[in-house]
Amino acid sequence: MMRRALLRRLAAAVLAALMTALLFSSCTEENAGKEQARLVAHFLDVGQGDSCFIELPNGETMLIDAGENYYGENIIRYMRSRGCEKIDYLIASHPHSDHIGSMPYIVRHFDIGEVFMSEAVSDTYSFENLLEAISEKGLRINKGEAGVKIVEEKELTAEITAPETVDEDDLNNSSLIIRITYKDSSFLFLGDAQKTELSKLGEIEPADVLKVGHHGSGTSTTKELLDSVKPKIAVISCGEDNSFGHPHPETLGLLNSAGCEIYRTDKDKTVIVATDGKEYEVKTQARSIVREK
C-alpha cells in the first residue's frame, strides 16, 4: 500500500513537471496545429551582459545580442533545448563585448539567416572577430537603423526604431532600439542607449514588456521614458554583484513608481516571458512561479 501511494505521488509529480515544461514548449511545437501561437522571449542569464532569444509565433527565431565571449556554447545549448536549429534573425545591438562577445562563436557553430547590425564600428577584437565570422559564413549584414522592418506580417512586426545616426563618441547611443509587436502585445528593447539618445526619440509608443536600458544603469531610464512606454513588465539584464552597481537604486525607484513588475537576471536568472498576443505569462529559473497577466 505504501509503495503504491509513493508511486502515485511520484507519477503526479512527474505529470506536474511535464505540464510546467509544456507551458513554455518550443515554438516549433507551439505552432504545429495550435490555435494560439505564442511569442516567447527568453532573457538569458549571461552575467553582466545582454542576450535575448525569441521564439516568434510564426515559427521563426531571433537572437538579440550574445553576452561576453564565454557564453556562446551555453546559448547554443539553451536554444537547442528549445528545439531551435536556426536563428532566422541575428541582431547585434552595438559593438560592445558584453553584447557581441559570443556572437562570433554562435555564427560559426549555428545556422544563421539574416544579420542586422548597428553601423557603429569598433577596433576591438570582439567586433573584428564577429565581422570575420560573418564573412567566413558568407552572410550579408543588413544595415540597422531607424525604420528598418525585420519582420512585417499581419499580426507580427519587428522594427528597428533607432538610431537615426551613429554616435562615434558613445557607442551606447548607437544601440539598435527594437520594438516587437504581436497582436495586442508589445516588447521594447533599448540596448544601452543613454538618456541623451532616448530624449531625441520624443514620445515613445507604449510597450507591455520593457527590456530596461544599459543593465539598469541610472544613465538610461528616465521618468519621461516610463511615462511614454507605460511598461507592465520590466526585465533587467545584469551580473550578480557586478562592479558597476547595476541596477542602480534610482532606476529601480523609477520602475517601482511606474508600477512595473521587475525581473532581473542577477537574482531571477533566465527570465521567460510568453504571450499569445493578449495575455502574458512569466517564468524564471530562480523562482518556482508562473505568473499570468
Radius of gyration: 19 Å
Topology as H/E string?
A: HHEEEHEHHEHEEEEEHEHEHEHEEE
Helix content: 25-40%
Average residue pLDDT: 88
The N- and C-terminal alpha carbons lie at a distance of: 42 Å
How would you write the strand order of the largest sheet? 6-5-4-3-2-1-14-15-16
Number of strands: 16
Which CATH first-tier class would you pick?
Alpha Beta
Q: Report the structural category.
A: alpha/beta
Query: CATH homologous superfamily - what is it?
Result: Ribonuclease Z/Hydroxyacylglutathione hydrolase-like
| CATH-defined architecture | 4-Layer Sandwich
Strand content: 25-35%
Shape: globular
- Outline the biggest β-sheet: 9 strands, mixed
Number of domains: 1
- Enumerate how many helices there are, as a single number: 10
Low-confidence stretches: 1-34
Q: Report the CATH topology name.
A: Metallo-beta-lactamase, Chain A
